[in-house]
Design a protein that fits this description.
The complex is a heterodimer.
Chain A lengths: L2 H41 L5 H13 L3 H11 L9 H27 L2 H9 L4 H31 L11 H12 L2 H35 L9
Helix pairs in contact in A: 1-4, 1-6, 1-7, 1-8, 2-4, 3-4, 4-6, 5-6, 6-8, 7-8
Chain B lengths: L4 E10 L8 E9 L3 E5 L6 H8 L7 E6 L2 E2 L7 H7 E4 L11 H11 L5 H14 L15 H13 L5 E5 L7 H16 L3 E5 L3 H7 L2 E6 L2 E6 L1 H6 L4 H8 L3 H4 L1
Helix pairs in contact in B: 3-4, 3-5, 5-6
The chains are: A mainly alpha, B alpha/beta.
Bound molecules: adenosine-5'-diphosphate and magnesium ion.
Amino acid sequence: MDIEFIRESIPLYAEAAVLTLRLALLGILGSGAIGFICCLLRTFRVPVLKQAAEVYIELSRNTPLLVQLFFLYFGLPRIGVVLSSEVCAVVGLSFLGGSYMAEAFRSGMEAVPVSQGEAGLSLGMSRHQVFFYILLPQAAATSIPVFGANIIFLIKETSVFSAVALADLVFVAKDFIGMTYRTDEALLLLVIFYLILILPVSAVCALIERRVRYAQFGNRSIVSGE
Amino acid sequence: MKEKQILQIEHLEKSYDGHPSVLRDINFSMEKGEVVVVLGPSGCGKSTFLRCINLLEPVSGGRIYLNGQDILSGQKESSRIRQEIGMVFQNYELFPHMTILENVMLAPLLVQKRDRKQTVEEAGELLARVGLSEKQTSYPRQLSGGQKQRAAIVRALMMRPKVLLLDEITAALDPEMVREVLQVVLELARDGMTMLIVTHEMEFARAVADRVIFMDKGAIVEEQKPEDFFSCPKTDRAKRFLNMFHYEALG
Ligand SMILES: Nc1ncnc2c1ncn2[C@@H]1O[C@H](COP(=O)(O)OP(=O)(O)O)[C@@H](O)[C@H]1O
Ligand SMILES: [Mg+2]
């Protein structure tokens, strides 16, 4: 191991990590927004758009991010749509994550008993009020672990961004290996930087999960009985 | 139609797709301040009956009038109609992510846009009346079944409904909590609340009812004053039903 090399490389990795993190955050926000919209379309059974959402979800879940990125970066310019690498990365990640988030919302919504909605309706609440005040808060709380897992999954998926010429972490590592042949050091740094990105997210997710679940329902896990 | 009649139901029919009729030609009416208890074997359509009145189930035929207004015509929004018809469910259906105070204030503030300060006061008074003053800031999970059901009754009352529908509200409760809930209902009856009550508590039914209707296989087969119904039911079906509650008669 060349400690000197590692120390000198850190700034470049840090820069790439910031880029990765920034794009990941945007992609996660985009995923959440798309997932929420799909949830709305499904819950309110909006004709046509609901079916469109189902098609999108199938398409998104059954194609690899790399292929989606290639389509955006190399395919679209053929029909005259040229997107920058960064836009491709964010759009691609959102396209992928949207369906995962939609499924997270769906599982949460399915966990709320129908009778909860009926209780709201019987109080004279409109369907929208029932959705926003009664169903959604309960669904979101139930889905928090899935949201967390999806977020971590999406951060990991950023590792294919270098395919569309983005100077992300993997790109930097590959660059170092190509130029200096210091494979061990380059890969070690790559692993460390990904851990730096993901471990805090994991910890925060676990914390929020415990907090929210306890505050809202005091759910004791049936399995652990804690 | 008589002026006093708050609820009038004509030829109500209900069937679920592909199932035989659940409700058949139900004709029924209630006066303001009246308490009617619905009795009948499990599966005879009691819940469906209440749910139709509250527009939670689409009906297959017939008419329902609330204060002389046809509520199935679609002229009046279902939200407005439901505000006038309170409902309490067997499993409480309190909102688990809200405190008791938030539970009972949600609809008055959101739907009726009532003044917050007055609503807080009103909620405090009603909760105190059912013995839940201490529980305002508790979550439903922190309450016993009986406390939850009393809170659910307050939640329905907060909307100032004209009629209250109660569907087996003590069926999920441990025996020692049944009384505290039924006590609240008895007090409401004394205060003149119009109520349509499905219950299997016969003593309570006899005490609270002005009139009993007995349903079987989706139809109202008997309608009587409680003292007459319990002492000499007219139909064999009702006799057999009442006998189920006399264990000594079986031995
Ligand atoms: N969603 C449904 N689809 C089909 N059949 C139903 C549905 N809900 C209730 N039923 C049927 O309607 C009948 C009456 O049910 P219900 O009103 O719940 O009876 P009760 O409250 O008197 O026990 C039962 O035979 C039940 O199986
Ligand atoms: Mg029932």
